[in-house]
Amino acid sequence: MFGEHDDRLVFDHLWAAQNRQKNLKVQMVKGASHYVQQDDPEKVNTIIRDFLKIRQLKVSNKMKKIQNFTAS
Q1: CA 72, CA 45: separation in Å to the nearest integer?
Q2: Is the separation of the CB atoms in 40 and 47 below 8 Å?
Q3: Of 16, 29, 50, 71, which residue has the fewest beta carbons closer than 10 angstroms?
């Protein structure tokens, strides 16, 4: 996660990393600087919550598959 007006990161490197890494999701926060959590705390919290919900769902689905496999 980075701010649209971050002057310390090379954006092309972030987007390229996302294209190379299977489980990497890069998100830009519009209007924010390098300090995204201070510039837009609500947006940052939403992004983090959404990420955790997706991860929890994936883990839950994997656990169900394991339970179904071991029960058969």
Answers
A1: 41
A2: no
A3: 71
Cα torsion through 49, 50, 55, 56, rounded to 10: 60
What would the two tokens of residue 6 be? 């971050």
According to DSSP, residue 9 is labeled S
pTM of the entire predicted model: 0.70
Please say whether the beta carbons of 36 and 44 come within 8 A. yes
28 in helix, strand or coil?
strand
The H or E element spanning position 40 is: none
What is the rounded CA–CA span in Å between residue 23 and residue 58?
12
Burial 34-65 (b: 16+ CB within 10 A, else e): eebeebbeebbeebeeeeeeeeeeeeeeeeee
